User: Fold these one by one.
Assistant:
Number 1:
Amino acid sequence: MDEQTRTALEAAVFRRLVAHLRERTDVQNIDLMNLAGFCRNCLSNWLKDAADAAGVPLSKDQSREAVYGMPYETWKARYQREATPAQRQAFETSHRHE
């Protein structure tokens, strides 16, 4: 597979993952962290890191909006629930947040 095709496929996979996470607002970031070791915020940070490395201007707020599909504060107000004690305990023991 050539580099251009690989990059296009990887971009398509990223867009599909982001679209899936936008639809699954019932899945909390802490659940993603506890199960997979990354969350929506990680994705937005990785996007910003890639933009910075490429010299593309992208703010933290812009990268979060690109992942969440809306301003982060709006998403939090609409969909984020208080973490349960079990979720917090699992998060504290996992130490996997990037």
Note: DSSP finds six helices and no strands in the chain.
Number 2:
Amino acid sequence: MSGIRKRVVLAGGMAIAMTFLAGCLQNPNPTGGAGGAGLGGFVDGGSPDGDKKVTILGAFGGGEQKAFEASLTAWEQESGIDIQYTADQDFTTTIKQKVNSGDSPDIGLFPQPGGLLEFAGQGKVQPIDTFLDYDGLDSTLIPGLLDSARYKGRVYAAPMRLAAKSFVWYPKQAYEAGGYNTEPKSIQELQKVADEIKADGIAPWCMGWESAQATGWVGTDWIEELVLRMWGPDVYDDWTSHRIPFNDERIVKSFDEFAKIAKDETMVLGGPKGVLSTAFGKAALPSFDKPPKCMMERQGNFVLSFYPKPVLEDLENQVGIFVYPPFEGGFEGQPMLGGADLAAVFNGNDEDVKKVMQFLTSDKFGAEWAKAGGWLSPHKTFDDSNYPDDITRAVAKFAAEADVFRFDGSDVMPKAVGSGTFWTEMVKWENGQSSKETADNIEASWPKS
């Protein structure tokens, strides 16, 4: 999950050859269309045009909502546009109801692009190349992010917040005192680090999958990381979109590779039974014991919110981080797994909406949110001095340096699989079921239509 809330991505094929507004660039691959807005028209939902009000619906509330609104205040005053944000924890259901009933917001912030792409297919959302400088935007974003909102070649949303997952966290003082490699260049080198830690009498990996009805999702993240690194983004995309079956032999090999850690009693604290009974948010806590009971955890940037208060108060001295490395003999680049909140337009006729989107999806947005903590910009060009600590700056740097970004794979898949059988079969796998049987069972559960 990305900040526990997980996200989706789908891939597509073709687009239409048109430039809609002066200064707006054509979308790449100009060869087709997707009805409605995709054929050159403009979707016309949302609030009345030209009223100097722009309505936004999103999923995040509480402190995140306050930080989001604080990031808009100065721009609102300068532009004279009043941005009215509404938070809804059941965003996915609410946005469908509103759009289908003709009561859509001007802008929707999608934590999962699946519903967005449904709207794109229905011609109910505006392609971004009609109001954004597509090439300019793409040049500042982490590679691969815009693909998350691509439908038949056309892109229908742009990211305004990033969540990154491909990190290994460790207790800095104990780890460095042990003399362990802080920059392993491959998964094979990382395995050597794990062997050294084990030889010192410490479980190399901290791992917990327990998450109530979502138990198993941590394991799916590991599989996705390995598929991406062992076989590359093209195979990863084919797998998540079911162009190859879930039980393709390469995917089964990824399960077997993960078994070297997750099914080895000496590699994870408590062995497989401990993995399944440990809450994911508490998995790393034993690493801060003196001496540590386990040493490393692979997890997303949101994991910091679960660390003990004394650790958070001395974060830079207590916590170390490196990016989960590539697989030797696999994809040659450095991938990054994660998610993003994607901003999409339901009112393509309103100039104020376009202006808000131009700011919201730029590298100038988010300074106030970044300073408050818990937010990452999807832009490589964002001023990282806005981040509150060196750990967050390191996370942002690793994400910005990634050669390719891919969304959480289980969110790309149909819900029945991604947050259904993939989770439940991972639990059976950790309990002893074979990799082949696990992959076969998930493949058999894939919806037929």
Note: Residues 167-335+409-445 form a domain with the D-Maltodextrin-Binding Protein; domain 2 fold (CATH 3.40.190.10).
Number 3:
Amino acid sequence: MHLYNAWLPPPVAQETKKEKESFSRVVSSIKDLYRPDDPDSVYSTLKWISVLDLFIKAKSDVSLDDVVSVVELGLELFCKSQSKLYVQVIH
């Protein structure tokens, strides 16, 4: 649990310990949606940007392996979407 969450009531603070698993499921969902053989599948990943942003803003305790996966996938999506300016701006 991040120091910022220390003020939370104990039951809520306990639930924040599940953030690592939740983030991992989000990463898996993004990976499942993106298909390298389908250039338009980059659009299906856009809805997850705001979810990832929430984890970052909450300073959630997440697995570094999952963070590496998100960064690598994000770079791949950015490179694959050269002709899709909207996707590049959002990612």
Note: The chain has five helices and no strands.
Number 4:
Amino acid sequence: MTVTTPSKSILKRGALIAGAATLGIGLAAGLADGALKLNHNAFAQPIQLSGVQTQLPSFADMVDKVKPAVVSVRVKTQSVASNDEDGQGSLDDLPPGLRRFFGEQGQQRGGRPQPRQGMSQGSGFFVSQDGYVVTNNHVVQNAVEVQLVTDDGKTLAAKVIGTDPRTDLALLKVTDGGNYPFVQLASGKPRIGDWVLAVGNPFGLGGTVTAGIVSAQGRDIGSGPYDDFLQIDAAVNRGNSGGPTFNQKGEVVGVNTAIFSPSGGNVGIAFAVPAATVEQVVAALKKDGTVSRGFIGVQIQPVTTEVADAIGLKDAHGALVASAEKNGPAAKAGVKRGDTITAVNGEKVTDARDLSRKIAKFAPGTKTTITVWRDGKERELSFEVGRQPAA
């Protein structure tokens, strides 16, 4: 990328002025000699930019369609605060610079631990006609009362159906029946570079729309074992938590959950839970109020190029087993320390995190197989998926 400083711009402008002056002198001399004939048509020709599309897209029609399904979420909270808590909720579980964007007020500090009451604000969106709403877990954490404010200003009481801290998702339900506008979750992943639109409640303003593109996929921000975030550059800030990110079809491709911000302000790096994850979690919360994930019972490490060379793998992939939990599903199947798990049900495991995500998708009790690399050979082992312990 070339950065043009003001001094360089001035120099370029000066060169153009000087060039124009030289041209003027030449024209004057030519006219005086009668030797220069001007072709006025040559100066009237428009500049043609072949293959360049200069018209930017308008999101107005799509905004009219989806905005009524997006709500502001207002939560009264109560929790027991320790002396050293700073009232930032789940901010502490993220690496430096990463923030989940909502605020609490009314903390009580000093003295013995005591109940702390506060308020938080976020965003959400209807996913069904009968009033189910998706938002972030950290927005409704420790909630004692939840209200939703619709795009037309109506206030609706809601209850928490279930939460999933591991993906930072929560499912709410409007307590009164009704016919609510809702949006669909996208069936596929967006491409890097696709236009997206974020709608939410930044700083409590409500009904705010920002646009950008998908910057990256599969981001691991260190918030949990199942990180698989979309990165977007649409402006999101405190209060956007739980709000949707739409594609140009008006489908939800992600739920905004965190921003990278050393200063606390927007710097154009935001992270959203992908729609595929949202769909799985919402279905489980709607059915059981909780999410049950598969469990294999191993401590795993990445397979580096050096490790792959040492154990005879053609390329670096899979998950190296550091230990197998005694009487766990993997140990019962015969998995040993030093094994490398390279596939699950025949599907290649790219890395350690990929193994965690693959196993988590299985319902506890599911019969499955894993492929392990041991002593220069592949082995197929069958096992019954266990239940992931509570967070």
Note: The chain is about 20% helix and 35% strand.
